[in-house]
Amino acid sequence: MKKLFACGLCGHIEFNGAPEKCLVCRSPKTAFDEKPDALKKPANPAALSDGDKKHIPVIVVAKQCGLIPDGSCTDVHVKVGQIEHVMKPDHYIRCIDYYVDDRFVSRVWLSPDTCKPAAGLHLAVKSGRVTAVETCNIHGAWMAEAEI
Ligand SMILES: [Fe+2]
Predict the structure, then answer these.
(1) How far, in Å, is the centroid of ligand 1 from the Cα of 146?
(2) In angstroms, what is the span from residue 20 Cα to ligand 1's centroid?
(3) Predicted local confidence at residue 1, as pLDDT
(4) How many Å apart are CA 122 and CA 133, to the nearest integer?
(5) Contact predicate 108/21, CB 8 Å
(6) How far is the CA of 67 from the centre of ligand 1 (A)?
(7) Element (H or E) spanning 54, and its range?
C-alpha cells in the first residue's frame, strides 16, 4: 500500500514521501501532509457504480508512436473514465497527473467546455509502471495504474 502525501496548496499527491518542494506549485515540504484518504476508492471494487466508472481513469499504452516513430517513445493515453466524465464549468476534471514507478512526471491541466476529460503523454521509457491520478473539482482524486 502506497503512503500518500498531499500538497495543501495545489492538491498534488506524492507517493511514499513529501518532496523538498511541490513539483507542481513549488510550495515547501511543510505544505505536505500525509493523507491516507487523498485518493477516492470504489465502495465495492467488484461491482463499480456509475460514479466510480465516471472517475476511475482508463489508461491505454501505445508502444508505437505516430509522432516519434523511431521506437523510442511510449504513448500513454488517459481517459476519465470508463463512462466519460462531464466537462462543464460547475463539474469537470481539473487535471491529470502522471507518474512512472511512483515518481511524478507531469500534470496536464484541463479546461471545462474546451477539453475532453483525457490526456496523452509521450514517454521516453519502454518499461515501468505508470500511474494516472485525475482530480474532479467535486468528487476528488482517483487513481489507476498500468504496466508499460
Ligand atoms: Fe465528478
Answers:
(1) 22
(2) 31
(3) 73
(4) 17
(5) no
(6) 32
(7) helix 50-55
**How far is the C-alpha of 78 from the C-alpha of 61, rounded, in Å?**
9
Does position 16 have pLDDT exceeding 90, yes or no?
A: no
Q: Is the pLDDT score of 136 beyond 80? A: yes
pTM above threshold 0.90: yes
Name the maximum alpha-carbon separation found in the chain.
43
Q: How far is the CA of 75 from the centre of ligand 1 (A)?
A: 25
Rounded (5°) CA angle 43-45-47: 90
Sheet containing strand 32-34, strands side by side? 13-15, 4-7, 32-34
Residue 61 β-bridge partners:
76
CA of 126 to the centre of ligand 1 (A): 32
SS3 91: strand
The average pLDDT across 70-75 equals 94
- Give pLDDT tens digits for 103-126: 999 999 999 999 999 999 999 999
Rg (CA), the chain: 15
> Where do the domains of the chain lie, and which CATH numbers do they carry?
1-38 (2.20.28.10), 40-147 (2.60.40.730)
pLDDT at position 93 is: 98
